[in-house]
Design brief:
Elements lengths: L1 E5 L2 E4 L3 H12 L4 E4 L4 H6 L5 E2 L1 H9 L4 H6 L1 E3 L1 E6 L2 E6 H5 L3 E3 L2 H14 L3 E3 L3 E6 L7 E6 L2 E6 L2 E4 L17 E16 L9 E5 L2 E9 L2 E9 L9 H11 L13 E15 L2 E2 L2 E3 L5 E2 L7 H22 L3 H28 L7 H16 L1 H12 L7
Parallel strand pairs: 1-12, 2-3, 2-13, 3-9, 6-15, 13-20
Antiparallel strand pairs: 4-8, 5-8, 6-7, 10-11, 11-12, 14-17, 14-18, 15-16, 16-17, 18-21, 19-20
Helix pairs in contact: 1-6, 1-8, 8-9, 10-11
Length: about 400
């Protein structure tokens, strides 16, 4: 027997995109149901992004979801670039009047889930056999299984916020999506370590042996990355080797005594840029990683997902409150303009900072010249800072 349910919006995925969308819709008086394949513990503990742009933080504040963020996040007013044995700082606040906040994605998700459930709203974890039906019609539906029972959820809109490997994008008919994809010939080996931060701000290091990133997640946990071959195995990297390589790539003539501690998590992240367009097919609207992936160099993934759902929520409200489909029609074009600007920035950062196999001296000197330009020219520094702290949300 199938249990039939009705709501205005079905949100597939309880990551940042789906949860922020749910809160935006609730604020607009729109009923929705959130469906998540994984357990609550899983989505609240998986380590992902940690840098929140200024517009993202401001949105969470407007929604009343930033109480713990404001109390615990680490505010960064600048970032540093290390190259040619030196460190140079870009003052984000002085150049833009804005800052970034370091606050783990899993912490954002905990806050969003807790607040959503406090509202008494519907969020179902560990659903299976999720399938989308009739998304090209005015009355789509979603079928799924939960706690041994079959369900059919009838809605007006389906929001696909279930990531790159979710069911939403594959539900678009073959040939209806145009895909642009770039896979980089290197990856990131990332670790979490129980070590107090050595430096107060992020350091992007372009070294002869490859890129390294110094970051943090809290006053007691450090997040660090090393560029490695795309096909690298974690088995090749002992704890001692990781720390030795970080010590080589991060020190500069400005002095840097890298604090070490037990490595509590490690993993290898593929570097790619991916965009599927259009981001709308009938009543199915894709958002976040379901529609696009950016290389993590520019710290944009979570923030780009939030930007998508701001536009999506406005489009849905216009449809359901005013019976006006203009927002739906414009949704993909509005989002993709920002998506491609963020892709450009992330690709530029990636190319400027990473070493390529077979790279000759000429190419390396061009990288160093670019780094010199971006850290000494006010115009170049400002352009970087404006992108780094976050482009405005919406149709700008």
């Amino acid at each position: 027997m199938v249990r039939v349910e009705r709501s205005e919006v079905a949100i597939i995925g309880a990551g940042p995109a789906g949860l922020v969308l749910a809160h935006l819709l609730a604020r607009a008086g729109i009923d929705c149901v959130v469906l998540e394949e994984r357990s609550r513990n899983y989505v609240q503990s998986r380590v992902r992004a940690g840098v929140l742009e200024h517009p993202t933080v401001e949105l969470l504040r407007q929604l009343g979801l930033a109480e713990r963020l404001d109390r615990e996040a680490m505010t960064h007013r600048g970032i540093e670039f290390a190259f040619a044995g030196q460190r140079r700082r870009i003052d984000l606040e002085a150049l833009t009047g804005k800052c970034i906040s370091v606050y783990g994605q899993q912490e954002v998700v905990k806050d969003l889930i807790g607040s959503w459930l406090d509202l008494g709203a519907v969020l179902r974890f560990e659903v299976s056999d999720v399938a989308l039906h009739d998304v090209h019609r005015e009355h789509p539906s979603v079928t799924y299984r939960h706690e041994g029972e079959s369900h059919r959820l009838e809605v007006a809109i389906v929001a696909g916020c279930d990531g790159f490997h979710g069911v939403s994008r594959p539900s678009v008919p073959a040939g209806a999506l145009e895909v642009a994809d770039r896979v980089y010939p290197f990856a990131w080996l990332g670790i979490l370590a129980e070590a107090a931060p050595t430096n107060e701000e992020l350091i992007y290091s372009s070294h002869e042996r490859g890129f390294a990133l110094y970051s943090m997640r809290s006053p007691s946990v450090t997040r660090l990355y090393l560029q490695v071959p795309a096909d690298e195995s974690l088995a090749n990297w002992s704890e001692a080797r990781i720390w030795d390589e970080l010590a080589i790539r991060l020190p500069t003539d400005a002095g840097f005594d890298l604090r070490q501690g037990p490595i509590i998590e490690r993993g290898i992240t593929t570097m790619r840029g991916f965009v599927a367009s259009p981001m709308r097919h009938g009543r199915l609207l894709l958002a976040g990683d379901a529609a696009h992936i950016v290389p993590p160099t520019g710290a944009k993934g979570l923030n780009l997902a939030v930007a998508d759902v701001v536009v999506l929520a406005a489009a849905v409200a216009r449809l359901l409150h005013e019976h006006d489909e203009t927002g739906l029609v414009e949704y993909s074009a509005v989002c993709l303009r920002r998506v491609w600007r963020v892709q450009r920035f992330s690709a530029w950062m990636t190319t400027m900072l990473h070493r390529l196999d077979g790279e000759d001296r000429f190419a390396r000197q061009l990288q160093l010249a670019e780094l010199d330009q971006v850290t000494t020219s006010v115009a170049a520094s400002t352009a970087l800072a404006e992108n780094y702290v976050g482009l405005p949300f919406g149709p700008h």
